[in-house]
Amino acid sequence: MKLDDYSSVGFFYDALRQRFPYFSGVIQKQIDTFGDHWLRLFERELEVLFAKDKKRIDQAVMGYGKFALDSMKLQVKFQKTKAYDNKTYEEAASEVYQNKEYMFGLYLPGILLSHYLWRHHFLQHMFFLEKFLPLVGSGDGKVFYDIGVGTGFYSKEMLTRSNLTGKGFDLSPYSLEHTLMLLEKHHVDKRYETNLRNIIENPVMPAAEFLVSIEVLEHLENPQIFLDSLSCMLIPGGYGLISAAINAPNADHIYLYRNSDEVAEQLLNAGFEIVDSSVDPAYSPKKDGDLVPVNVAFIVTKR
Ligand SMILES: C[S@@+](CC[C@H](N)C(=O)[O-])C[C@H]1O[C@@H](n2cnc3c(N)ncnc32)[C@H](O)[C@@H]1O
Q1: What does the alpha-carbon distance between residue 27 and residue 31 come to, in Å, rounded to a whole number?
Q2: Which residues share a beta bridge with 250?
């Protein structure tokens, strides 16, 4: 592997090899699969976030490693039970979204880095860049909503790659804090507003030209009610990017989607039209019957 021109990725790789040798092969795998494009994007993100500070890179590696280990253990259990742990939305919220230590210690760094390190998450990012962004264009004078901002990664992408103004909604104060931190580092926070708000049965008006909601549906007890709200938040002729995790147990995944058709059906029920989609498995099944985590992303519009 030749990382001489990518020193932040090099520092990250060294820390990962030291702390979680089992996971360190992922760097070479991503380079083999996605090449220089991936390296350039990851280098830039690490540079902006950590400015080559090895101590902070190490902290991020610790957070990512713990998050990935957690997901791996849950996936092993899921292969046997074929079900998510039986949890209420309130239990997941207090265990995860309202738990500062968990959010900053592993959840937020884990998700942020997974956008580069997990094959299916990076494929979703490519789908966003290649298929959704051209629909946004320059974004001059237009607004987007990001619902369930989490790390703020997709808000950052929308703001740095267009002139849109944005509003982010999340019920976790820590997600909003992380989002603001990320946007400040990318110098795009002036075009953005964060809102501590539970979107279920509580749509935001007026409707916006664009919306993104990435990996939120599986966190809800009833995603259909949430999608009905989202549908009210998009103007006719506007575009949305909505994604969901399938067969992917996490500490806060409640609603088990078993395939992408189940998500598509709920989108159509909510009054969306499907323009395009990308269905991306995390890896190839190791044996027959293995349940592999899949990410599905839909570009939707409304008449
Ligand atoms: C997996 S994260 C989303 C990932 C994020 N889009 C990203 O790319 O980093 C799920 C987020 O949804 C938020 N959330 C869950 N239910 C919500 C609701 N009803 N309204 C608003 N936010 C919600 C959680 O607090 C959490 O920050």
Answers
A1: 6
A2: none
CA of 176 relative to ligand 1 center, distance in Å: 10
> Is residue 200 within 8 Å of 235, Cβ to Cβ?
no
Task: For residue 174, report the distance from its CA to the centre of ligand 1, in Å.
Answer: 11
What is the 3-class SS of 66-120, one letter each residue? HHHHHHHHHHHHHHHHCCCCCCCHHHHHHHHHCCHHHHHHHHHHHHHHHHHHCHH
| Number of residues in the chain | 303
Nearest CA to ligand 1 atom 27: 150
Residue with tokens 């051209």: 134
Distance in Å, CA 147 to ligand 1 centroid:
7
Domain chopping of the chain, boundaries: 7-117, 124-301
CATH class in words for 124-301 = alpha beta
Placement of tokens 């997941």 in the chain: 92
Atom of ligand 1 nearest to the CA of 214: 6
Q: What is the pLDDT of residues 95-133, one digit of tens each?
A: 999 999 999 999 999 999 999 999 999 999 999 999 999
Report d(CA 111, CA 153) in Å as an integer.
9
Model-level pTM? 0.96
The preferred substitution site among 122, 170, 221 for testing ligand 1, maximizing ligand atoms within 8 Å of CB, is 170
